[in-house]
Amino acid sequence: MNKTWKSLTSLVTIFIAIGSFSIPSVSAEEVNLIQNSSFEIQASDGSPANWSKNYWGSPVPTFKYLNTGRTGAGKSASVTLNRKSTGGADWGHTSVLVEEGASYRYSNWYKSNVATEIDAEFTDSKGKLSYALVATLPSSGNTWKQASSTLTIPADVTKVTVFHFISKKGTLTVDDFSLVKVETTPTPPPPTDPNLFNKGLVTLSFDDGLKSVFDNINLLGSLKSTQYIYTEPMFGATECAGACYEDFMNISNVKSLYNAGHEVASHTRSHPNLTAVSAVTKLFETDGSRLDLLREIGIPVSNLAYPYGESNTDVVAKLQSAGFVGARTVVPDDLNTRNTNRYALFARQVNGNTSFAEVKSWIDEAILSKKWLILVFHEIRNSCGSEVYCATPTTLSGIVSYLTTQNSNVNVVTVAQGLAQMNNNPVSNPGVPVIAQEDITVTTTSQTGAPVTFSPAVSDDDTGLSLTLNAFCTIANTVPDPYSGLIFPTVVTSGYTFSIGTTIVTCTATDTGGRIGTKTFTVKVTN
What we know:
signal; TIM Barrel; 6-stranded antiparallel beta sheet; 6-stranded parallel beta sheet; hydrolase activity, acting on carbon-nitrogen (but not peptide) bonds; Jelly Rolls; elongated; Polysacch_Deacetylase; about 30% strand
C-alpha cells in the first residue's frame, strides 16, 4: 500500500509522548498482537503474509523479502533508499486492535547503516488517523540491535500500526516484531493517615442527665447520642431539703434512652471537681457512679465526662484503674484524631450564645479534616434567657438536619463508638475480674477499733490497660448523706479504722466490658 504523505511531520494531527527507549523483558504468557512477526509465513504473492510495503514522498525504495533472519535462520525484510529524497519507506504490519488507555510494549530487531525512526499510526472509532513519534534510532553499524518502547493508547483509539522506517539513503533490515499488552498493577490509593478517621465523626453529647434533654430527644430523629448521667439525681436525691432535682431524669428515663440506642455514660455521682477531692471520694464518685449504672439499671459504662471539665494525672489514673477506657473534657482547642489522649477528648460546647453557623463550621471542619468533633449540650429550652449552658430546640434541630444532609460525608457516633475507632484500644475479653483477699483478724487495745491494712489483688483477662484494675470496697451504711439524702455504702480503703467486732467488706472490680467481679471478706477486730 502506497502512502501519499509528503512528510510525516506535516501530517501529524496528534503528538503523544509514548515512552522511553529501553529493552523490555517479555514473559512466555504475553500475547504478541503482531501477526507473522518474524516474516516466517509467505503469502501467495511471494511477500510476507500480513505485511505491506509502504512509502511516501519522493523515494524510490527497494523492498526485499530475505531468506536469512537475525539469528541466521528464518527470514527478515529490508528496505533500501538508493538516493536522497523526501519522505520515507517501511514494512508495515497489519493494524491491530487495542484498548484506549491501556499500555503496550513494542519491540523489534533491526540493523541499519543510517539513522532510522519508529512512529505509531492510531485509528480512532471514526476511522480518523493520527501519528506519534515513538523513537529516533542511530545507525546500528549494520549489526543487529533491539529497539523497544511502551505505548499508551489515547482516548477513542481502536487500532494501531507501528512503523520502523528509513528516510535517508541507506538500508534498514528488520525482524522479530512484538507488541504485547502490559498488565499494569493498579496504582494504590494514597496512603491513609493512621491518625485520621475514614471520614469525619460527630458526637452529640449531653451532660448532667437533665429532664429537658429527655423531653426533646425526638429532635435527634435516628441519630444516637451519649448521655452523661450523674447518678444522685437519678436516684431522687433531695439536695437542699427540697425537690431540687426535679429537673433531672429518673431511672426510668435513663433506661428508656438506653433502650432506644443512646449511650449512657458516667458524670460521677454528685458532680464534684475531681481534682479537688480526696482519694476516697474519687473512688466514691468514679467507681461508685459506674457501679450505680451497671448494677441498678444494667447499663455498661465505658467512659466519663469530667465535671466542670477538670482533670489531672491522679484523676486519669483513677479512671484507668476503674476500667474506664476514655474520658471527655470541655477543652475546645482541637478536634480528636485516632491518637488523641483518650482520657482527654476535646469537645466544643453548644451554649446559649452559640450560633448554628458556628456549629456548622465545626462540622465542616470535621468533614474536611477527617477528625472527630464532640459537641456538648446541657439544657434544651425554648428560651434560654440568661442561662449560658442552654440551647434551644431550634438550634438542636438545625444541627441534626445539617448532619442528616451530610450523612455521606460524616458519621454521627456515640463517644464509645468513637473511642473504638481510636488507636491502641484496650481489648475486652470475656473473663470476669477475680479479686483475691483473705479474711482478716486484728487485735487492738483501743475500745473504738483499729486501722486495718488490706490490699485486694485483682486479675482480669482484658489487655491493653494502662493500669491494673482496682477493687472498690465498701461496708454497710445506714446513715443518709446530709447533702443528697441518699444512703450509699461507705467506701473503705487500706488503713480504714474498723470498729470492734466483725465487719463484712464487699469489694467489686469492673473490667472494660462492664463485667463485675465480687469478693466478700470479713474484718474481725478484737480487744
